[in-house]
Amino acid sequence: IVILSLFHSTSAHFSTDFTQYLDDTYGVGKRQYLERNDLQNRGSFGGRSRHGEALARNPVVFVHGVAHVAGSLNKEMTFYYKSRGYTDAELYATTYEDPKGDPLRWIHYTMKCDHVKRIRFMIEAVHGYTGRQVDVVAFSLGVPISRKAILGGKCVENGEEVGQRITNIVGTFIGVAGPNVGVAPIVNGISFALCAMSPLIPICNPVDGLFSGFCPFKSRFIDDINFHKHYEGGRVYSIGSKVDEVVGHMVCGDVSFTIATTFNLFFHKVNNYFQTFKHSGDVQIAMLSGSSF
């Protein structure tokens, strides 16, 4: 089992080759939209070290969780992936939000249309750049955002069109500690329907937030991503914990982190929210390779 230490100062940026591809294909503005250099080299990573470098496996797009950026937990996980044979040409990420160093800023997050469109564009750009299907490994709030990015359709808060489903370009989808049916944090063994009690907090709002726990009602975003089944990729997996102090375990009778019609479900029974991601590198890679775990 891989164990990672979290250092928010980890450097991350796109390679020169990927930068050139984005400029040539989409224009400088679109490249900057993904690159997030406003985050001082922590906003993105990925790309070939030289033009034409071959890929031995599908590229992975990591999607970070709440209050994180590409250059934090996801970048740390790439070190383990590299120890298992992956290269920089096969590992990618962008940042859809910016915690700005505020540990409480997460309460202001929502799953807004711009986040969805940015992650969708990242998946499409990596697919075009590599010419291969893309594997997606998403954590926490990045799971429902990624699912909507792949599903497409209209954004729930403004009706803006995202586009058609892009299931065909996603090989494997892995959701880790994702609030797929909402959140019910576990504190001292007791589950709390946080968003049912706090619907005015942005992250808990009933439109593009995580409103849940007032059974059977959930946010429009949660209902939207769960109405359709098995659109996330060719193989779909979810990883979660029974003692998750952030997402929780059960919400209105459903396991919080599961995705309908997942091929397999792996429980980290003793790991909390962050540990579920940080300790599951070996399981993630087994899922990506189609091996047993």
Automatic annotation (TrEMBL):
InterPro entries: AB_hydrolase_fold (IPR029058), Lipase_EstA/Esterase_EstB (IPR002918). One of its GO terms (biological process) is lipid catabolic process. This is Lipase. Gene3D superfamilies: alpha/beta hydrolase. It comes from the Eukaryota. Coiled coil: none annotated. Pfam families: Lipase_2. One of its GO terms (molecular function) is lipase activity.
